């Protein structure tokens, strides 16, 4: 797995390999709580009644009530079934199993473990094959684990203090010394990113993610940041990130991909973000950099 080196340009950036890869910190779960209150918290978070959950999990509202109040100890199979229907993240499913007195089901394999060699190689080929368009790999805290030369091009000119590992995508984008001053539709794009983080915080009970959100949400918005006039531009079908680069405005549509049915905590928390040119001028310029 590679990461863009600091202070490089799109023409000369040679990715470097970090000595170790960051592992997301454990969520701030409720220490000492039994599985009942934890399951109830997830059910309430999902706005689901006991009866609805029971019907989905092929159980009864009475049994769900007994589990939540501690009158019944759920089996490992029942914990996993309820977690599946409550869309509980893989990391938190382990916490539920432990709270119920069962062993964790899902391993947490370090990303640099040989067992994940094929996964790392596949993601590397994916983001490199996406060039000259930007693409990166992030963990659940938005720390950048890998990036291609398209990303290096966008980061050209960012102070080295922000490029010191671990790089963080949200911090790089919204920091007043990062990409923020160059994003023409910063207010809109900032609102999109903060809303995305809020959804993640609702899904993952992570103190680190909450602290990151509070940090980047407090960054001042430059006075010049205003909504971009779209009258003379193409009619975008999704909100683009419009960013200044060497005197021109580049427009990108962002897409985030995750792995289907992950069976490992590390893999479950990986996300691949790709930036597709939103107009012909952006695509033409990016291709000119490699010709």
Search tags:
elongated, five-stranded antiparallel sheet, 10% strand, 291 residues, 434 Repressor (Amino-terminal Domain), Beta-Lactamase
What's the SSE blueprint?
Elements: H1 35-45, H2 50-56, H3 61-69, H4 76-85, H5 90-99, H6 117-129, E1 135-138, E2 144-147, H7 149-155, H8 160-163, H9 169-174, H10 186-203, H11 207-217, E3 241-245, E4 248-257, H12 265-268, E5 271-277, H13 280-288
Antiparallel strand pairs: 1-2, 1-5, 3-4, 4-5
Helix pairs in contact: 1-3, 2-3, 10-11
- What's the helix-strand series? HHHHHHEEHHHHHEEHEH
Average pLDDT rating: 86
Helix/strand class:
alpha+beta
Helix content: 40-55%
Q: Output the strand order for the largest sheet.
A: 2-1-5-4-3
Question: β content, as a range?
Answer: 5-15%
Biggest β-sheet: count, sense, barrel? 5 strands, antiparallel
Query: Regions with pLDDT < 50 over 5+ consecutive residues?
Result: 1-31, 226-232
Distance between the termini: 26 Å
Radius of gyration: 22 Å
What is the CATH class name of the largest domain? Alpha Beta
Count of helices?
A: 13
Shape designation: elongated
How many strand segments?
A: 5
Question: Which second-level CATH architecture of the largest domain applies?
Answer: 2-Layer Sandwich
Q: What number of domains?
A: 2
CATH fold-type name of the largest domain:
Beta-Lactamase
